[in-house]
Design goal:
The protein contains 18 helices and 2 strands. It is an all-alpha fold. It has a domain of 215 residues: Farnesyl Diphosphate Synthase, CATH 1.10.600. It has a two-stranded parallel ribbon. The radius of gyration is 21 Å and the shape is globular. Bound molecules: ligand LST6JFWI. The site of the ligand CC(C)=CCC/C(C)=C/CC/C(C)=C/CC/C(C)=C/[C@@H]1[C@@H](COP(=O)(O)OP(=O)(O)O)[C@]1(C)CC/C=C(\C)CC/C=C(\C)CCC=C(C)C has 28 residues, from helix 7, helix 11, helix 12, helix 16 and helix 17. The ligand CC(C)=CCC/C(C)=C/CC/C(C)=C/CC/C(C)=C/[C@@H]1[C@@H](COP(=O)(O)OP(=O)(O)O)[C@]1(C)CC/C=C(\C)CC/C=C(\C)CCC=C(C)C binds next to helix 7, helix 11, helix 12, helix 16 and helix 17.
């Protein structure tokens, strides 16, 4: 099975894989971004709290844009796309009805989706179970996205990672472009190609995830939280943006599309920050420190301290701040789950509650994330599932009684 995931870069003969620019921002002015926020999205306020990047509070006349602002532009673009494609989709569905898909194509596609489901079941059992609650169409689309993300992550994190070059990532991006244009390379790509043709999923978060992998190839330190935030967006916030169009927003939701995307982004960031805090020791052994260097210095800590891996009071106090910030992102994410379609809420609550408990486990380990791996035991995991289910149900029942959120 893992062979499937590892064999992801297949240089095509005669194909010209031109290097493409990796991360282009939606051209929106700072003023526009701010006015959107004042209409109901809390992204800037939320992130400019205790730990916000210094650039946000800069008083200079034309300060450089922070990562939060850059990423927020992607959020706005994704949200706009949903509104736009809602209209187009009505037309597409009518077109599809008139077509009779050849049996062969349909069968191949079903096979491809089923394989994605198998990969998902093997790599993320709990999450897979959660997807079984979704409608069959949504479920298989989430599987297809999951598999593409997993394969992308495997490029820099899997056993073949040492052979991965920026060129290989350029080829992976070229394949991505092709599958979005309806020319998939293999069956997993075919499943995703079908998914992106059916849902208002934009290519930008996918490209940004590849950019995150490029970042991993060339960078092992993060100057401040602004830099780390951007990295977290690339590798995990993007997953939230990819998933929402498929999971769907509840028809009765009164929240703005932007605020739901914002929550999804926050969940990705929260998950990744948690991942980073859990894996400090493991990453240090690979020479990597995914912690803001300026905050480490303020706490009187150096890279050496991380490599030595001793739990001191300075370290505990530093970790408390980092955990607090990760929880702030989880809190922000929680606000959006209720706005998702009924069947999508449970898997999201489940993944949120499970991941959040890793933070509790770091605390229970007395902040020793150098030699102990924080994890959520089977019993706690199982106990979280009905809790997640109840939260999802409560979201549904309170929705009708609640006034509009934004
Ligand atoms: C319902 C649901 C959770 C859907 C997401 C499904 C999906 C497409 C997942 C892809 C995950 C993946 C393979 C990402 C590749 C990059 C990566 C590895 C990111 C890290 C995940 C943890 O992975 P890993 O397997 O390495 O972890 P363990 O070592 O096993 O612990 C990340 C930390 C990020 C994952 C990010 C998400 C799952 C984003 C979740 C956000 C949403 C689903 C949006 C929810 C919507 C609202 C409104 C809140």
């Amino acid at each position: 099975m893992s062979g499937v995931l590892l064999w992801v870069i297949c240089p095509k003969e005669n194909a010209s894989f031109a290097a493409t620019t990796s991360y282009s921002l939606v051209p929106k002015s700072r003023a526009q971004v701010r006015s959107h926020n004042s209409k109901g999205c809390s992204r800037l306020n939320f992130s400019s709290g205790v730990f916000a990047a210094a650039s946000l509070s800069s008083a200079v006349a034309n300060p450089p844009r922070s990562s939060v602002e850059k990423v927020y532009e992607v959020v706005l673009k994704q949200a706009a796309l949903v509104k736009e494609q809602k209209k187009e989709r009505a037309v597409d569905v009518r077109k599809e009805k008139g077509q009779t898909d050849s049996m062969t194509r349909g069968d191949l596609l079903n096979g491809a989706y089923n394989r994605c489901g198998e990969v998902c079941a093997e790599y993320a059992k709990t999450f897979y179970l959660g997807t079984l609650l979704m409608t069959p169409e949504r479920r298989r689309a989430v599987w297809a996205i999951y598999v593409w993300c997993r394969r992308t992550d495997e490029l820099v994190d899997g056993p073949n990672a040492s052979h991965i070059t920026p060129k290989a990532l350029d080829r992976w991006e070229q394949r991505l472009n092709e599958l979005f244009e309806g020319r998939p390379y293999d069956m997993y790509d075919a499943a995703l190609s079908d998914t992106v043709s059916k849902y208002p999923v934009d290519i930008q978060p996918f490209k940004d995830m590849i950019e995150g992998m490029r970042t991993d190839l060339k960078k092992s330190r993060y100057k401040d939280f602004d830099e780390l935030y951007l990295y977290c967006y690339y590798v995990a916030g993007t997953v939230g943006l990819m998933s929402v169009p498929v999971m769907g927003i509840a028809p009765e939701s009164k929240a703005s599309t932007e605020s739901v995307y914002n929550a999804a982004l926050a969940l990705g960031i929260a998950n990744q920050l948690t991942n980073i805090l859990r894996d400090v020791g493991e990453d240090a052994r690979r020479g990597r420190i995914y912690l803001p260097q300026d905050e480490l210095a303020q706490a009187g800590l150096s890279d050496e301290d991380i490599f030595n891996g001793k739990v001191t009071d300075k370290w505990r106090s530093f970790m408390k701040g980092q955990i607090k910030r990760a929880r702030m992102f989880f809190d922000e994410a929680e606000k959006g789950v209720a706005e998702l379609n009924d069947a999508s809420r449970w898997p999201v609550w489940a993944s949120l509650l499970l991941y959040k408990q890793i933070l509790d486990s770091i605390e229970a380990n007395d902040y020793d994330n150098f030699s102990k791996r924080a994890y959520v035991g089977k019993t706690k995991k199982l106990a979280s599932l009905p809790v997640a289910y109840c939260r999802a149900l409560m979201d549904g029942s309170s929705k009708f009684a609640k006034p509009a959120r934004s």
